[in-house]
Task: inverse folding
C-alpha cells in the first residue's frame, strides 16, 4: 500500500503543477496582450505612434513606395507594400512588445512597444 500512496501523491503533485503552469500561461498571455503601441520608424526616425487598441488602416510613404499598415484586434500588420521583396507583407501580424516588421527597401520599421510605459519621453515630439 505504500507504493500506491506514493504514486497517488505524485499524481496530485503533477496535477497541481499542470494547473499552476496553465494559470501562469493564461496570465502571461493576458498581460502580454494588454495595451501597447506600434512605433513607426522611417529612416531611423520615429514618425508616428499608434495604439494597438484602436483599429487603423494607414498608408505610409508615397509614390510607388508605400506600405499599408493595418491594426486590427490588437495586432499590426503590413498588408500591402510597393517594395520588391514583400518581406514586410509576408512577415504577418505582430502584437507583442519587442516584435517588429522591417521593410528594408523602404527603410521602414514597425515595432510594438510595451503597454506599461511609465510616462512619455520628454525629448520626443
Ligand atoms: Zn517591404
Result:
Amino acid at each position: 500500500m505504500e507504493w500506491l500512496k506514493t504514486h497517488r501523491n505524485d499524481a496530485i503533485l503533477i496535477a497541481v503543477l499542470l494547473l499552476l503552469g496553465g494559470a501562469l500561461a493564461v496570465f502571461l498571455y493576458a498581460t502580454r496582450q494588454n495595451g501597447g503601441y506600434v512605433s513607426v520608424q522611417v529612416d531611423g526616425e520615429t514618425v508616428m505612434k499608434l495604439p494597438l487598441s484602436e483599429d487603423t488602416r494607414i498608408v505610409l510613404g508615397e509614390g510607388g513606395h508605400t506600405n499599408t499598415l493595418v491594426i486590427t484586434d490588437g495586432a499590426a500588420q503590413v498588408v500591402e507594400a510597393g517594395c520588391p521583396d514583400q518581406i514586410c507583407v509576408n512577415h504577418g501580424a505582430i502584437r507583442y512588445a519587442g516584435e517588429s516588421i522591417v521593410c528594408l527597401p523602404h527603410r521602414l520599421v514597425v515595432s510594438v512597444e510595451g503597454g506599461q510605459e511609465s510616462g512619455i519621453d520628454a525629448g520626443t515630439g
User: Anything to note?
Assistant: The chain is about 30% helix and 35% strand. The helical segments are 2-33, 87-90. The first strand starts at residue 37 and ends at 42.
